Amino acid sequence: MHRVRDAATWTSKIGVMRPVDVAKGSECPTERRIVASGAPGAPGAPGHGRAAAICAVRTAGRWRRRTGLPNRSLYGGRYDTATMERPDLPVLPGIGDAFGRALRDLRISVTDRCNFRCTYCMPAEIFGKDFAFLPRGLVLSFEEITRAAEAFVALGVEKLRITGGEPLVRRDLPDLVAMLAAIRRPDGGVVDLTLTTNGSALRALSGRLRDAGLRRLTVSLDSLDDEVFRAMNGIDFPVARVLDGIAAAGEAGFSPIKVNMVVKRGANEGSLVPMARWARDARVILRFIEYMDVGHSNAWRLDEVVTADEIVATIDAAFPLEPADPNYRGEVAGRWRYRDGGGEIGVIASVSRPFCGDCTRARLSADGKLYTCLFASDGFDLREVLRGGATDEELRAAITGVWRVRRDRYSELRTEATTDLDRVEMFAIGG
Ligand code: SAM
Ligand code: SF4
Ligand code: SF4
């Protein structure tokens, strides 16, 4: 079902992709391959793949060294952008990657720090007092994040998710929310702005977040059993305080609230039915997430994954379910509704039922690296572009160049062998 395109054969103006005559291209002096001619971002100029974006960066004389390898991913090394022209394919709105997947979502990690030490994400024995988190100077400022977000939105991104680490530990976060909430899409529409949090600070911050323009919220909660929850969050944090945070969010006007539960065998599969019962009563949308092999610190094992099928069967036995249609193409969670009309659940089956074919998500880490996959080993250094004096057009050209050559589909290729390969930690890019 994938449509294959060559990044060097497509041009991107904001909102439009169209074929380019490669015959008019020239050889990139640094990458030693043919790329389309013209300066990226110049009016009417052909767009480029990653090679051309980097060339532009060098030609502009603002960057002293090559700006990272955006897609040095697990399964292909550096990408060949000089093949697979498909001018027969239809013009798509926005920019598409090498498989024709549009760029629609941006997840912004505002900090790599967190007050929790969830066993599946930041185990306490590894992320102890001595762990070196990012120094402040390397973390993007609110102004830099907003400028990057504006560029992504101009290129077709419709949804921004603020995440972390724990986003609410970043000082003055409501100020950033207000800045992001003010961004408008090229058609003048508002951007779908949301935030994922562990919920520990919601009693203190819900009102300010709401006043700043946040409209949607996802809270992570892995069990209602206090003992289980305290063990999973790694800092003995009581579940009652997260539940109180969810209540505070409701009082502040967030509705509906989504709750994410990572299900790990041997840890919290016994919490599935109680969580479902609670969510039905509390009218929150519960989404179960298969435990994933993100990062390198959680000692992930396949046999600890409770699959979507098992999750659905367990809930169905207590509260009969029927499948529901996706809300939109590319929706990450499979939807199931209760037959008695008691609402619905979502199941994110990234291990047992990968959805790479519809993956439209980019991720920006707190230090400004652009990742095109949750499982990438490295990201493109957008901070260097932001701080190097690039114009807005050059910024958009750099993002376009990274996205056009994207070929990530880790979950579809996952094997026992790939889980040992180098990849970014979850708390660095926010899930
Ligand atoms: N700290 C915030 C929180 O926990 O909601 C935001 C960042 S956290 C990295 C984003 C999401 O990733 C959370 O819902 C968390 O449960 C999920 N997550 C972290 N590690 C995971 C793993 N190994 N497998 C599946 N989901 C994971
Ligand atoms: Fe922190 Fe969220 Fe990771 Fe838990 S899942 S350690 S709350 S970043
Ligand atoms: Fe997207 Fe990568 Fe996850 Fe596939 S593995 S769905 S490409 S983030």
**Overall CATH architecture of the largest domain:** Alpha-Beta Barrel
The CATH topology name of the largest domain reads TIM Barrel
Structural class: alpha/beta
Residue-averaged pLDDT: 80
Total discrete domains: 2
Number of DSSP strands? Answer: 16
Low-confidence regions = 1-92
Distinct helical segment count: 12
Determine the CATH superfamily of the largest domain.
Aldolase class I
Describe the structure.
Strands 11-12-13-10-9-8-7-6-5-14-15-16 form a 12-stranded mixed β-sheet. It contains 12 helices and 16 strands. The chain folds into 2 domains: 3-94 and 378-429, no CATH class; 105-356, Aldolase class I (TIM Barrel), CATH 3.20.20. 48% of the residues are buried. With 431 residues, it is an alpha/beta fold. The chain binds S-adenosylmethionine (SAM) and iron/sulfur cluster (2 copies).
